[in-house]
Design a protein that fits this description.
The protein is an alpha+beta fold and about 240 residues long. About 20% of the residues lie in helices and about 35% in strands.
């Protein structure tokens, strides 16, 4: 059973009461995070806005599941007592629309870093992808990218990566529930992915490239669902900032 917080939908933000006591179970804003914004950027902007609205400097604001700066889409912002439900929300199934380019790799598995190697991709057909995808479904161990926020001996992995240090990334157990080809305009695949928490879509791009005897990296990512929240009912940052 989902916790009893107040869910904000488009058009509701400027109707919020200035009395936080009117939201005893807290508030969750399903934000459509803009491109190039970090999740921390989004929390900071919204927190500043709501501190002024509620007149509370010590207002608790957080998010339920980081979304990379190069990704857009659903980021759940938790306010007040809803921050206590962040872990519950983060544990729910997620859905993404991913664009994967075959024929090249990058150290970050996405566009954060420059291409470091190229591979043949002309042999990759839609039929070959359809034949390959089933092996990715279900429970499996996935190796996270070194350019990630995963902790290694108490330090974020990307800190090691940026210093050029080589560290061992330990596999984590994930579950891929659904993989659906939405489009394939070679060498770019558009894939709908339903997955468990902790899944790195960038790692799927890397692993799928390897499975297809090529290379692969992520060139676009949008989170479209998180538990019972959908991108169709997400609130834009423009609405929040202009309210």
């Amino acid at each position: 059973m989902e916790p009893n917080f107040t869910r904000i939908t488009p058009g509701m933000f400027n109707q919020l009461s200035s009395d936080l006591e009117n939201y005893p179970d807290g508030i969750v804003i399903p934000l459509d995070k803009p491109y190039r914004w970090t999740s921390a950027d989004a929390v900071r902007k919204i927190k500043f806005k709501l501190q002024r609205l509620f007149g509370k400097r010590n207002l608790k604001v957080g998010h339920a599941g980081t979304l990379d700066p190069l990704a857009t889409g659903l980021l759940l912002i938790c306010i007040g007592k809803a921050t206590k439900q962040a872990q519950y929300l983060q544990d729910q199934r997620k859905e993404y629309i991913a664009e994967i380019r075959f024929g090249a790799t990058t150290p970050s598995y996405d566009l954060e870093k420059e291409i470091d190697a190229t591979y043949p991709w002309e042999h990759i057909s839609r039929a070959l992808i359809e034949d390959t995808l089933p092996q990715f479904l279900g429970q499996q161990d996935q190796v996270p990218p070194i350019f990630s926020a995963k902790l290694v001996d108490g330090v974020r992995a990307y800190e090691y990566a940026r210093q050029g240090e080589v560290v061992e990334m330990k596999p984590a157990s994930i579950h891929l529930y659904e993989l659906e080809i939405l489009d394939y305009q070679a060498p770019v695949l558009t894939l709908r992915i339903q997955c468990s928490k902790g899944t790195y879509i960038r790692s799927i791009a890397r692993d799928l490239g390897i499975a297809l005897n090529s290379g692969g990296h992520l060139v676009g990512l949008r989170r479209t669902q998180s538990g019972s929240f959908s991108i169709e009912n997400a609130v834009s940052m423009e609405e929040i900032l202009n309210s």
